[in-house]
Automatic annotation (TrEMBL):
The lineage of its organism: Eukaryota, Metazoa, Chordata, Craniata, Vertebrata. The gene is RMND5B. It comes from Rhinopithecus roxellana (Golden snub-nosed monkey). This is RING-type E3 ubiquitin transferase. A zinc finger (RING-Gid-type) spans 325-366. Its EC number is 2.3.2.27. Residues 142-199 form the CTLH domain. Identified in the CTLH complex that contains GID4, RANBP9 and/or RANBP10, MKLN1, MAEA, RMND5A (or alternatively its paralog RMND5B), GID8, ARMC8, WDR26 and YPEL5. Within this complex, MAEA, RMND5A (or alternatively its paralog RMND5B), GID8, WDR26, and RANBP9 and/or RANBP10 form the catalytic core, while GID4, MKLN1, ARMC8 and YPEL5 have ancillary roles. It is an enzyme of class 2 (transferase).
Length: 380
């Protein structure tokens, strides 16, 4: 069967079905009186039905695609409203900014401390100059020393860290720190990586492990056993894990943790901890604020130092011991401290006062009767 094609003038590509239909009208085909009223042949009827089916499928596909795009576009506006059109000032009391100058200075100091702790010393100095913030050298010195040693460790230079650990050996031992041993171990591993030529030097350096033999006996045995495979190559031996680069990341983390503990600094800056806590707490507080305003509950939230509900920030943000009274199910405070009874059980002072009957107190957990005055306050 012969095929015929319809080419539109001025077009180099064959037209699609939709463009063909849109540009098709009776002017393209001259009238033929002989064909008027003549029924279509079976072949032509089949071709026409296939074309109609393709056109219908194409139109349905376009409608479906348009529906998906419209659904996605409509969600964009809701996402913008949800993420960028939130008023967070309502969860903060206006009284916080009464002493604006003092609060601004505290915030600037927190930012400067964060920059020093992150090693951005030049940025911190620039901020101090522009904000006319006076920072003592005694405050800067621990951060300067900490970042100097960390930069050396990132360049795989153990000298400054070892010198610092030796000079603070006694205080590190009081903290049960293994920093000095790990530094000596890493230096020994570097000598092992040098091959058989460094064997005698490694054996000589192993004398530094003597003060740590009791606490790190197993690790020292592993390192000494690796000398047997030194001529064959440690990378193909059972001791290949000693050459793992993760040891450098571990020593940086250990040094940062122990040095901050020794110098009285937090591992993470107060600004970063506050920011992370705020990201967790703000959505909850904003929801509470919206519910309070909707239900017109006055006096529920007074914007004082305590929140209307307890917000779980995770174990990472736990810095102090917390005791909740098993009787009243309330967290103890300075005005309601935990009290230890003679029998050993601990309850809050408010619970103790409620349980007094006739000048006597009966423990709610055991039948022991006792004098309420014998209870002792516990400080966690």
């Amino acid at each position: 069967m012969a095929h015929c094609s319809l080419d539109l003038p001025g077009s180099s590509n064959p037209p699609s079905h939709l463009s063909l239909l849109s540009r098709w009208d009776h002017r393209h085909v001259p009238p033929c009186p002989a064909l008027q009223g003549t029924p279509l042949s079976a072949t032509l009827s089949l071709v026409m039905s296939q074309c109609c089916r393709k056109i219908k499928d194409t139109v349905q596909k376009l409608a479906s695609d348009h529906k998906d795009i419209h659904s996605s576009v409509s969600r964009v506006g809701k996402a913008i409203d949800r993420n960028f059109d939130s008023e967070i000032c309502g969860v903060v009391s206006d009284a916080v900014w009464d002493a604006r100058e003092q609060q601004q200075q505290i915030l600037q100091m927190a930012i400067v401390e964060h920059l020093y702790q992150q090693g951005m010393l030049s940025v911190a100095e620039e901020l101090c100059q522009e904000s006319t913030l006076n920072v003592d050298l005694d405050f800067k010195q621990p951060f300067l020393e900490l970042n100097r040693i960390l930069e050396a460790l990132h360049e795989q230079d153990l000298g400054p860290a070892l010198e610092w650990a030796v000079s603070h050996r006694q205080r590190l031992l009081e903290l049960n720190s293994s920093l000095e041993f790990k530094l000596h171990r890493l230096h020994f591993i570097r000598l092992l990586a040098g091959g058989p030529e460094k064997q005698l030097e490694a054996l000589s350096y192993a004398r530094h492990f003597q003060p740590f033999a009791r606490l790190h006996q197993r690790e020292i045995q592993v390192m000494m056993g690796s000398l047997v495979y030194l001529r064959l190559g440690l990378e193909k031996s059972p001791y290949c894990h000693l050459l793992d680069n993760s040891h450098w990341a571990e020593i940086c983390e250990t040094f940062t943790r122990d040095a901050c503990s020794l110098l009285g600094l937090s591992v993470e800056s107060p600004l970063s901890v506050s920011f992370a806590s705020g990201c967790v707490a703000l959505p909850v507080l904003m929801n509470i604020k919206a519910v309070i305003e909707q239900r017109q509950c006055t006096g529920v939230w007074s914007h004082k130092d305590e929140l209307p509900i307890e917000i779980e920030l995770g174990m990472k943000c736990w810095y102090h011991s917390v005791f909740a009274c098993p009787i009243l199910r309330q967290q103890t405070s300075d005005s309601n401290p935990p009290i230890k009874l003679i029998c050993g059980h601990v309850i809050s002072r408010d619970a103790l006062n409620k349980l007094i009957n006739g000048g006597k107190l009966k423990c709610p957990y055991c039948p022991m009767e006792q004098n309420p005055a014998d209870g002792k306050r516990i400080i966690f």
